[in-house]
Amino acid sequence: MPATLSALSETYNHRLAAILPSPIRVIDSEFAQIPGILRLTLGEPDFAVPAHIKEAVKRAVDADDSHYATAWGHVSLREAIADYLATQFDAKYDPQSEILVTVGASEAIYATFNGLLNPGDKIIIPTPTFPMYEAIAEAMGVEVIGINTAPEFVLTPAKLEAAIAEHPDVKAVMFNYPSNPTGVTYSDAEVHAIADVLKQHELLVFSDEIYAELIYDAPHTSIASILPEQTILISGLSKSHAMTGYRIGYIAGPADLMKHVGKMHQFLVTTAPGPMMAAAEEALRNGHQDAVDMRNEYKARRDMLVAGLTELGFTAAQPGGAFYLFVKIPAWLDQDDMAFIHDVANTVKLGIVAGSIFGAGGEGYVRLSYAASMEDLQEALVRLGQYVALKKTAQ
């Protein structure tokens, strides 16, 4: 094994070094070392990719789709994305100049931030939220203006207006709904109320709507359909069609902005892989029912978990979408959420994630992913019940 030349040992990106690795992954990897543990840590759908989507990959491979695609992605896929967004969310885009195919939504977020923001810029990020947004901003030297949305976990127009007034030089707002980690989403009226504030300011709106197909109680309203001239829409197929390993995401927005995002994307990955793009096109053209079926199963899991947790004395924000429960630790238990998850993992072998890693407002909460089988979720309730019983006995 080569040893680093001593003179080079301090040669690295200092901004990146100051940022911790993905805390969700760190916790999951740590808990994976515990024999017999049941992990509800990752947002990883437990479903298999639907058969007709897998067949599309095979056809593309057999057709020798193994060469470079155009940097922005296969035109036929971009056309499918445009049709999907127009039909599902009334968001209309030109597939030639306003839609970009990325290697997952994660690359989409990175390309968007780096294509449109500069060191020293400010971005508003409501919390609790997905840790990647802040990590990318900090690595770029972009200042994060956090808005603590607890305990309702909803960004209100008043809170947004106050943050903008306090930071009039802010350049962008990060909007994520349905939310990771809370599962909370926004009604049509709530999205319009947020849009009414944003349209009064010359701000970019980065809207991560990766969970838009997983909304249980009302249709999804995309802010891109209301503020198309300000919004960069980020999404993908990972959550709606259980295609996390296929790594296909996409970005849509005004052409004048997308040319910068597309340039950053091209420098990052050149292009997305052809067979995976064929799979995404099949999912968008012929996989609507797949997403509906998965959504119905997630809803049944949500309802079962909420009822079971309530019986055990836990409360959770009622998730309108995604596949997460953000659960309040009862007052009589350890309120240090990081200590709590480790105690649960070591005592009853149940892996969950601390709410504090998702930013201000997450302290004293834990996140449970119900992207797991009903049997595993029922077993999780049994183990959590055992933990509660043990703690009550010890008091």
From TrEMBL:
InterPro entries for the chain: Aminotransferase_I/II_large, AspAT/PAT-like, NHTrfase_class1_PyrdxlP-BS, PyrdxlP-dep_Trfase, PyrdxlP-dep_Trfase_major
Pfam families noted in UniProt: Aminotran_1_2
Coiled coil spans: none
GO molecular function, one term: transaminase activity
Keywords: Aminotransferase, Pyridoxal phosphate, Transferase
Listed EC numbers: 2.6.1.-
Domain called Aminotransferase class I/classII large: residue spans: 37-384
GO biological process: amino acid metabolic process
Cofactor: pyridoxal 5'-phosphate
Family designation: Belongs to the class-I pyridoxal-phosphate-dependent aminotransferase family.
Name of the protein in its database record: Aminotransferase
Protein species of origin: Weissella soli
